[in-house]
């Protein structure tokens, strides 16, 4: 079974579409038999996605640091829950367990995880595909910043291309089928 690591918000956000997106992705992952690797929480976009995978008979692997077990409310109803020492171990284990990475709407933690994985790819520490779902133009500003950095000579073309943008559910489904 292929495993997709999804970085996303521990908050629900202001747009109900974020939770709807998480639930849709969870259902698609279960249907396509793609296991979810994620941050291990019951709250926000993360929790909604994990719940949807489980509800539709899929596999969910959560990775949560000890200090977040109570804060993010560790999900005890998933297939596997790994409690690790710290955020560094969380990211390393999520990387080790996954075949590809996808970022959904989220905040600083989502960006931290996404950019660390991208940096590892840039440094040729791995060649696993990295995607960003620009749901309802959520990431337009970030993607423009990356293009600006490229134009200014700080990001090479090959490194800019490491992050593949998805803009609709059909592309998301194609990603899952291709894993």
Summarize the structure.
The protein is α/β, with parallel strands linked by helices and 179 residues long. Helices cover 45% and strands 19% of the residues.
Overview of the structural elements:
There is one protein chain. This protein is α/β, with parallel strands linked by helices. The protein has a single domain (2-178), classed as Rossmann fold (3-Layer(aba) Sandwich), CATH 3.40.50. It contains 7 helices and 7 strands; from the N terminus they run βαβαββαβαβααβα. Helix 4 (108-122) links the parallel strand 5 (100-103) and strand 6 (130-133). The chain is globular. 38% of the residues are buried. The mean pLDDT is 97.
SSE string: EHEHEEHEHEHHEH
CATH topology label: Rossmann fold
The end-to-end span amounts to 9 Å
Shape: globular
Structure summary, number of beta strands: 7
pLDDT < 50 stretches: none
Query: Strand order across the biggest sheet?
Result: 4-3-2-1-5-6-7
Mean pLDDT across the residues is: 97
CATH class, please? Alpha Beta
């Amino acid at each position: 079974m292929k495993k997709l690591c999804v970085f996303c918000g521990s908050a629900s956000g202001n747009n109900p579409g974020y939770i709807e997106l998480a639930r849709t992705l969870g259902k698609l992952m279960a249907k396509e038999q793609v296991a979810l690797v994620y941050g291990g929480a019951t709250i926000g976009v993360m929790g909604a996605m994990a719940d949807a995978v489980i509800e539709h008979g899929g596999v969910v692997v959560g990775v949560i640091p000890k200090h977040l077990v109570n804060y993010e409310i560790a999900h005890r109803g998933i297939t596997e829950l790994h409690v690790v020492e710290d955020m560094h171990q969380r990211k390393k284990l999520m990387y080790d367990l996954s075949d590809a990475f996808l970022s959904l709407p989220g905040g600083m933690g989502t960006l931290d995880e996404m950019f660390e994985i991208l940096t590892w790819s840039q440094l040729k520490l791995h060649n696993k595909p990295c995607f960003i779902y620009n749901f309802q133009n959520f990431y337009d500003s970030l993607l423009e910043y990356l293009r600006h950095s490229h134009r200014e000579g700080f990001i090479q073309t090959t490194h800019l291309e490491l992050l593949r943008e998805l803009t609709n559910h059909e592309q998301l489904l194609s990603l899952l089928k291709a894993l």
